[in-house]
Amino acid sequence: MGQALVVGVIAGGIYGLYALGLVLVFKGSGVLNFAHAEVGMLALLVAQNVIVGHGQPYLVGAGAALLTAVVVGVAFERAAVWPLRAAPRMSVVVATIALLSLLIAMELRIFGGLPRLLDPPIHGNGITVFDVIVSPTQIVSLIVVAVVGLALAAFLRFTDFGLSVLAAAQDQEALRFLGIRLARVSIFTWGVAAALSALAALLIQPTIGAIAPNAFGVLFIKALGAALIGGLFSMPGAFVGGLVVGIAEAEIRHATVSSSLTGLPELCIFGVVVLVLTLRPQGLLGRTR
Amino acid sequence: MTAHRKNVLLVLAFCVVLPPLTAHAMPRLLPGSTALTLSQGVSLGIAALSLNLLLGYAGQLSLGHAALLGAGAFGASVVVDRWSAPMFLGWIAAAVVGGAVALIIGVPALRLRGIYLALVTMVFGLTMQASVLRWQVFTRGSAGAALPRRLIGDHILTNTSVYLAMTLVVLVLVWLVDRNVLRTKIGRAFRMIREDETVAQAFAIDVTRYKLLAFVLAGAIAGLAGALYGHSIGLVNSDVFSLQVSLRIVLFVMIGGIGTRWGAVAAAILLSLNTKLPESLRGYDLIIAALIVLYNVVRFPGGLAGLVAHWRGAATTATVADDDEEVAIPHFVVDHDETTIATDEPLLVVEEVTVQFGGLRAVDSVSLSVRAGTIVGIIGPNGAGKSTFFNAISGFAPTSSGRVFIDGRAVHELPPHARAAAGLARTFQNVGLAKDLSVRDNILLAQHRAATYNGGAALLYTRAANEIEQRLGDAADAIVGGLGFAARAATPVRELSGGQQRLVELGAVLATGPRLLMLDEPTAGLSPGAAENLADRLRELRDDHGQTILLIEHNVPLVLDLCDYVYVLNAGALLAEGPPRQLARKPEVLSAYLGEVVL
Lengths: 289, 599
Known about the structure:
The complex is a heterodimer. Chain A is mostly helical. Chain A has eleven helices and two strands; from the N terminus they run ααααββααααααα. Chain A has one domain (2-279): ABC transporter involved in vitamin B12 uptake, BtuC (Orthogonal Bundle), CATH 1.10.3470. In chain A, β1 and β2 form a beta hairpin. In chain A, α1 packs across α9 and α1 (2-29) packs antiparallel against α10. Chain A starts with a helix and ends in a 10-residue tail after the last helix. Chain B is of the alpha/beta class. Chain B is built from 24 helices and 14 strands. Chain B has helices at 3-29, 32-57, 65-82, 87-109, 114-130, 136-139, 160-183, 185-195, 197-202, 207-233, 243-256, 261-272, 284-299, 303-311, 386-394, 416-421, 439-446, 455-460, 463-483, 498-511, 528-545, 556-562, 580-583, 587-598, and strands spanning 145-146, 150-152, 155-156, 235-236, 346-357, 360-371, 375-379, 401-406, 409-410, 424-426, 516-520, 548-552, 565-570, 573-578. In chain B, the strands form four sheets. In chain B, strands 10-11-12-7-13-14 form a six-stranded mixed sheet, with helices on both faces. In chain B, α1 packs antiparallel against α7 (160-183) and α17 (439-446) crosses α19 (463-483). Chains A and B meet through α4, α9 and α11 of A and α5, α11, α13 and α14 of B.
């Protein structure tokens, strides 16, 4: 019980970070970004290549990963999201699906299909909580998640630009009359969401180990589950959803560890996603809009 | 020779000629490994046909097709490997399993559209790969399930060229089934659902049933494709059926042209040959394909329908003809001669219907009855609730209370498509047609109820189905000709002027063989001359064919002149009713509504 809770909170925070990016884009552009987790995957592969392939320090690799993600996010915003701002939302969704295909094809072409290894940035013994060894990396991860989440929330709440990002989700027309440059808001949204995906990918990597193709699809399910539970419009909700998914996953895995049926946590999350989408498409905690 | 017999002969010819032909020719042309690669390409081509049916015809995007392929492959493995049955039986099992799994995903899909449907199918595919497809009991886990190319007993097919020929035969079979779908009521219903689910219901199409059918058909074909794919690899585990495969199938369909059969198959086969490319070039094909799709999405921003329309060469430069053009209303061709006998019994009875939107009573306890063989009008100022009342009668607006009877039969609890099937046909203010389909296809579509053959007969295109289709086609030609659109039968409705579209809609609604014709502002957008002309035609329908008509109209003089009985609605409630002559003299009507017109 306690074990699963610790594992769940650590993973759940990172799912929350993923979900935050999904929610940000959904609020800003009214679109669920299918390529969201894959952007982080590409960034992680770049980091691995810089660190292991070129022998650079971890932080340089992490920087390269964030830069890659932001470039991809902003380039996609300029190439597809902005030109399609007046089009049906389904057009943009199909564009994100094309982006997902593109990213996977590029990863395969550049990095090949074999799993890649990356050592955690910090070595050491860690501390024991509820019989669980929490590694220094995981402690750092918890701190990073909390700091990034709070910093983003503060930025959106307390700066003029941040407020205009939040307002853009409400009424784009009104914003234009106030003289706010919607293009900047849109670029910011997609850039930050991409960076969040890269950050989450870097943080989750020590937990999943080898970086294999296909690994990030499952993360997308969890991020989506978190975002849906939180209500697609709520950023604090995304974190709550992340924790719910993380803890539920750990508990189910713990309870079914002896079962020969693999992937039961994923199956449960899928069930929740389908139920929420069919019964309450605005999200479990979301309000009707 | 009938189309049906042609089909059968074609398949037989393929089955007999293809395997020996390729068995001899292929080894000379290509090494054996190429034949296997090609057979994988053909299998994925069949998978692309499956998605093409779902996406291109019915407009439902699936991002989880790999899971359906996987379900089929593992199902086939159980039959062929564990039970040592011939692989043909495995293929049948694969289609059954694929169809069954698709049924499961189809049930939530009925409630979801667009983005959410794509999401659920993608999450479904990912979950299947992460979970069910890894289960030892079903798939032998990561070790993988074997799919020997077992002919019978211990005889295993070793000639890869013959196997390639077999996959080609299956491709031809699926192709023919697909073509049968498209040329029968099933394909028409799919396309109507893609265009507009509301209008589909007005044409008596059971949207729920047909969506489910689209999923099950696509699932069965995908399952079959999965088994064929598995047999050419020989050993499959869950990693074979990853999200990448689902996305690749989407790329095939989008590159080949959504809704274009040969394009999807060609893209699948060509892009599957990439493993034969030199190492330095490998992998770029999918990058380029993804970029092309991205480019197309940005260039043709109409959502899925926009992409479909683009591929069909329509709508991108929608050339809407001049609206002011004088439309001569033709004498409608009425195909059904079951002239309603005018009795004193009312055909339509509406009892105290109320429609409530939140706190607003859009329609407040309105009653109405329409005698057979009469024309009844509803008039009232804008916002009086006329269209909402129409929607309540035809089932498109939820009523909070009240009852509706057609010929004494209670229909107020039936869904719109069932009311349409009971003989209640209606037009829409913004023209209820599939605008990307041709004039003739729309008229064919309207005859959905007259296509009495069942689904199986449609898929096989049996002689009976063929005969009915011929008859419906002749009827459609007669109606199209009667409307004066013979030269433009193949023109997409979108490219006609507003008045012309209205005319085609009227023809289509009449083609449903309605007991009651409900017209929502039929003269809107028509010139005064054309409106007068239309009124004459409606009179003709009533007098010569006993057609019962209920209409909403703003043109008050025309209503008073045309109708046998008139209801006046104001602010959601019935203000007055009566024969036109009496009504025109009632002071409350004059002051509330007619005043401005008559005085």
